[in-house]
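Contributing: when you submit paired examples, paste them exactly as shown. First protein:
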Amino acid sequence: MNDNKELEKTLWATADKMRSNMDAAEYKHIVLGLIFLKYISDAFNDLHKQLAEGKGEFEGANPEDSDEYLANNIFFVPEKARWKYLQDRAKQPEIGKLVDDAMDAIEKINSSLKGVLPKIYADPELNKQRLGELIDLIGTIGFKQDGHKAKDLLGRVYEYFLGQFADAEGKKGGQFYTPESIVKLLVAMLEPYNGRVYDGACGSGGMFVQSEKFVEEHQGNIKDLSIYGQESNPTTLRLAKMNLAIRGIDAKIELGDTFLNDKHKDLKADYILANPPFNVSDWSGEQLRDDVRWKYGVPPTGNANYAWLQHFTHKLSPNGTAGIVLANGSMNTNAGNEGEIRKNMIEAGLIDCMVSLPAQLFFNTTIPACLWFLARNKANGKFRNRSNEILFIDARQLGTMINRKNKEFTEDDIKLITNTYHEWRNKNGKYEDVAGFCKVATIEEVKNNNWVLMPGRYVGNEEEVEDLIPFAEKMQALTEKLTRQFTQGSELEETIRENLKSVGYEF
C-alpha cells in the first residue's frame, strides 16, 4: 500500500511539473480525461485478450463485437481510440486532434458516456510536446500489472489526482471534492450495505465511491446499492461520471439545481451522504417560500444551510439515515428563523448525532465544520430505541497534519468516532460518556441549552460555543486573523463574508 502511495505522489509531482503556466482548474480535465481513457482502454484490452483466446465461456466469441463488451459491463474502445494507438503517436504534432477524435469515437459507441468526455486536446493553446509527455507518463500506470490490479490502481490514481487538484485550486476545489477521510467517516458511520443512496450535491462522486468500497470491504454485493445524485455544475458532473465509470458504478446522476429542479422528486433514500456548499446566499430561496420541503420552518433567503437540512430530511425513507457536512454556525444560529427550524427538527426526533470537526480538514474553507447525522425513525427496531436522546461527539482534537495547511483523520480516528456512535446506537452496545469527547443528552437537556447542538456545550469543552463571545470582540479577532492570512482583496472579502455567515450574520 505504501508503494502505491509513493507511486501516486511521484505521478502527481511529474504531471504537475508538466502543467507549466496552465491553471489547475483547466489542467485537471486534461489529466483526468487521459487517466479515464487509459482505464477504459486497459479494461477493454483485458477482455479483448480473453475473447481472442476463445476459451470456456468465450469460445467462438468475436473480440471486435461491441455487444460482447456491453454484456460484461466494459466500454468498447474503437481501434483508433486504444491507448497503444495513441501512445505510439504521442510525439506527433497532431496528437491533440487524435485524442479528441478518440474521445468522440468512444462517446459515439457508448451512449452512457455521451457528452461526458473532455474534447479539449486539440486546443492550439495546449503544448503538444507536454501532452505527449503526459500520455507517456500515464501509460506507465499499471503497466507491469494485469487485469484487475492495473484497473484498480488507475481508479486510485484518478481519486488521488482529484484530491490534489482540489488542493491546487484551493477554494474552488472544494466545489467538486470532499476530503477522503471525511467521506470515509460518513460512510463508516452510516454503513450503507444495501438500499438507495442519495447525494443532492454530489460533486465528483466521492460519497458513492466510498460507499461501494465499504460494501466490497464488508463482503457485500455492490448490486445491492442503487445510487442517485444531482450536481448543478456540468463540468463537475462530467468528472463524477468518469469517476464512477472507472469504478463500474451504475449511478443515476442528473444535472440541475437541486432546490429549483429536483431531478429525483419522488425518491426516498435509505442513506444520504452529502457535503453541500456552506452558507450559500444565492440559492433562489425567495422563489421557494411555499415549498413542500420546509416542514419544520421556512429557511432564510440569505443562507441555504437549513434548506439543505430540510431537503435531505424530505428525501429520507421511513427508516432512512443521513450524514451531512455543514458549517459550525448551523449548530447554534438563531438568524432568520434557523433557531426555530432547529428546535422543530430536534422535537421531531430527527437529530441522531452531532460531531464537531477539527479545523483545516477542508481544502476550500477556513470555516470550522460539523457533521449532522439524521434518523427518520429512531425506534424502528433495527437499532436501540434512541427516541429521547442525541449523541454529541467532539472530534476537534483528532486528526493529523498532512502538510502545512491541511489535516486528515487517521484510520484510528475514524474507528474511534464510528465505534462510539455504533456502541451507542446498537442494541446491547457498551457505550459510556467520556468527558471532553462524547456525551448522550436528552431532548430536555438540549431544550435547557436553548436548542444549541454544539458538542462542546455537552461534553465539557465550553469554549466551542461561539455565541458566548461578544460579537464585536469576535469580529475584531476574526478580521485581524484574516488580514494576516490573505493579501488579495477579493479573496479576503469573500472569506470574511463566509466567516460572517458562519456566525449568523446575514447580508
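Second protein:
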Amino acid sequence: MEMFYRILKTLFTGLFLISLSFSEKPAGGDFPAGEVPGPGDEGKYLQIDAPDEGFDIWQPGERSGGYRYGPSMILNTDGSIDIWRAASGPGDIVDLIAYKRLYDGGKKGTNEVIALKPTSGSHDQKWTCDPGVIKFGGYYYIGYTTTANPAGVDNDVCVARSKNPEGPYEKWTGSGWGDEPVPLVEYTDDPSGFGAGEPSFVLMGDTLYIYYSWNEDNSTTRVATADATDENWPATLEFHGECIPAKDGGDSADVKYCDEYGRFVAVFTEKRFSDESYVAVWESFDGINFRQSGFVKNNTAKKLHNCGISGRADGHIGKGDPVYLSYAYGGAGDGDWGNWCTRMHEVKLSLADAPKTDLTAESNSDNITVTRRKQSVIPEITTIKAENQVYTISEPERVWVLALDTDCDYFPVLSGVKFDGYDESVIKMNGSRMIPVSPGTTRVYISWHGFTGEFTVHVE
C-alpha cells in the first residue's frame, strides 16, 4: 500500500507541478543604488518592536516534520520579498537552501524551489545551510555554512552566485566561479567546535561587509570586508576580527544598514530554544564596532532561533521601507529537534535616548506554539537527487533517483529521468544502470521535469 501511495503521489504531484507556473510571480525589481548615508546620532539607540504576534509562513508536515530556518530576505520595489532558508534534505544530504518569493506582506507566495544544494564529492557534499544573500553587479550571492567533516563540526563559510534568485548557482572555487567549492572563510581553531558560518552581507559603496559566526563554545560574530568592484571579490577579503562578543545562548547575526538612522543593525536570538528566548538588537556606526541597543521580546514565539531581518538587495533598509523579522521556532528536546515552524512579523524601527536592556519588563506572548496542518494538502516537489551523492562501483549498479517535497518527504522517481554530462570513457548509462568502462571518476547530471541534480561515480 505504501509503495502504491508513493507511485500515485509521484505521478499526481508531478502532473500537478507541471501544470503550475510562476505566472503569478510579482515582477520584483531592485531599488536604485543611493549614496552611502553619513553616520547617525550616536546619542540615540535603535529599537525594533513587533506590534502583533505575526504569522507562520511555514509549518512542518503532518507525517515527517522538518524545518525552514535561518531566513535571508530581500525586499523588492513592488513590495514582494525574496526569501532563502535552510531546508531539511533527503537521505545523506542534511540541509539544502530553499527559495520562494513572498507577496501580500508575506501571506502568499510562489512555489518553493531548491536554489542551492551540495556538490557531490566536494567540500560541501553533505549540506548547504544558513543562507545570507545580497545582490550587486547583476548577481545574487549566497553565503552559506558547510563542512567536509561528517560530524557537522569544523564548518567553513562558502559562497555561490547566480543571475537569478532561484539559481542555478556557481560556487567560488578559490580563483573563480564553478562547480568545486572552496571556503570564503576557513575555520582555523579547534576542529571539534562548530567553526565558521552563518554569513550576512552589507554593501557600502564599493566595500562589501561580510559578517559570520565564529564558534568554539559560545558564538561570536566576526567581520571582514572585500572590494565589491572586483568580480573575484572573495580573493580580496580583509579580516577585522570580532565585532559582537559571545552571547547568552545566542546564534548568528543578520546585519543590515538603516539609511534613515545612519547605522548598521544586527539581529540575533538569545536564550534560543527556551521559553525565555528573544531577539537581540545591536548597532554600529562603522560596521566594525557594535554596541547593545535593544531587544524584541513581546509578541514573539517561545523557543525561537535563527532569525533574519529584511533589507533591499544591497543590504540596506531604506527610509519608508516595510521591515520584516522572521525566525524559526520550536523545541530542541528529544523527538522535537528539527520540528520547527517559521514565523514572520512586520516590525517598526525607532530611536530611543537609551538602550533597552531590562528583559524582566517584557515576557513572551502565550499561545504561539507549533501547530500541525489541519488537513492534507498536495506537497510541492522542491528538488531531486540520486539516492547517494557518491558511488564507487566495479560492476553495474542501479541509481535510485529521489524527489523531495515540501512535507520533507522523499520518494523514488520511477520514470522520465535523464542522465547526461558524464565521461563515457569511465561509465555508460543504460536507463538507470551505471556500467563501468574503465577506472576513473566522473560527475553525472540528472534531470526530471525541470528539476536537476548530480552525483559522482568512482570506477575501481
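If you have annotations for the second protein, write them as plain sentences, like these:
Residues 24-361 form a domain with the Tachylectin-2; Chain A fold (CATH 2.115.10.20).
The chain has two domains: 2-9+380-459, 24-361.
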